[in-house]
Write a structure and sequence with these properties.
Layout (H helix, E strand, L loop, with lengths): L12 E5 L8 E5 L12 E6 L9 E5 L17 E5 L8 E5 L5 E4 L14 E5 L4 E4 L10 E6 L8 E6 L4 E4 L20 E4 L6 E15 L5 E3 L5 E7 L6 E9 L4 E8 L1
Antiparallel strand pairs: 1-2, 2-3, 3-4, 5-6, 6-7, 8-9, 10-11, 11-12, 13-14, 14-15, 14-16, 14-17, 17-18
Length: 264
């Protein structure tokens, strides 16, 4: 299936998010720059009308969304966007990565001005106890691809940064990452044991106190809904695809423990 009005360029990078808050997932497209056929900036906004055939729902709303530029006024190269609620305020944020290694954070995407106001100091340095600028690549250009998902089930999306030179860097949403707010107080989670592990039909989750249990996949999606509080839980893995899952246990005080569960 092809979508109309999309630049016919290599390395265009999509991100799906409800940009206008109407309940329909829209499309943000990072591109390598303007062309004669598709003039505009490095980030394009395609609005989802929510009606008609899927291939016809997306219409170009803004061909220079956020008017993103380098410090010298030039267009960022090979821009890659991702949208998630990084700062935990209930509103979607935008994060972009460019080939010069710059990663920028734009809080509350829906209320940004016409020219987006962002920042690069998003990585917390525990040695200096301060936020540092996020930059990869050094003196050479390198395509970067960000992704976000609540992998450990703590309610905060983690940031994953794929690199053209190989490998994926991962960052948890703690200690100031993607927010200048003070880090939350971390309470010790409940002691939890999961067995058998790997499991083929059923797993037992045993805790030292009453816990509510949720099972998630590695993208943070719930595959077994939260249970009532209990010390021992029987978890059926019937129907789950073989792979690794996360067992999230939360006690009455709100402290969380996460354990891996392999399903065969």
């Amino acid at each position: 299936m092809e979508l109309p009005n999309l630049p016919n360029q290599r390395y265009t990078m999509p991100a799906v998010a409800d940009v206008d808050g109407d309940g329909h997932p829209d499309l943000l497209l990072g591109v390598t720059g303007a062309s004669t056929a598709f003039p505009g900036g490095p980030l394009r906004y395609y609005r989802n009308s929510g009606t008609g055939e899927l291939s016809q729902r997306f219409r170009l709303e803004n061909n220079d969304y956020g008017q993103l530029r380098n410090a010298d006024g030039s267009l960022p190269g090979f821009l890659s966007p991702v949208v998630a609620d990084f700062d935990r305020d209930g509103r979607p944020d935008l994060l972009t990565a460019a080939t010069d290694g710059t990663v920028q954070f734009f809080a509350d995407l829906r209320t940004q001005p016409a020219t987006f106001a962002g920042r690069t100091n998003i990585v917390f340095d525990p040695l200096n106890q301060q936020l540092e600028a996020a930059r990869w690549g050094g003196s050479f250009d390198m395509r970067l691809v960000p992704a976000a998902a609540d992998v450990n089930g703590d309610g905060v999306p983690e940031l994953f940064l794929g690199q053209e030179t190989g490998g994926i860097s991962s960052f948890v949403g703690r200690g100031g990452l993607i927010t200048s707010s003070p880090a939350p107080v971390v309470r010790s989670g409940p002691e939890v044991r999961v067995f058998p592990n790997p499991a083929t039909a059923q797993a037992t989750v045993e805790a030292t106190e009453l816990v509510r249990l949720t099972v998630l996949d590695l993208l943070g999606r719930t595959v077994r809904p939260q249970t009532a509080p209990a010390r021992v839980h029987q978890v059926s893995v019937a129907g789950l695809a073989a792979g690794v899952y996360l067992v999230r246990s939360q006690n009455e005080a709100g402290a969380v423990s996460v354990r891996r569960l392999e399903v065969k």
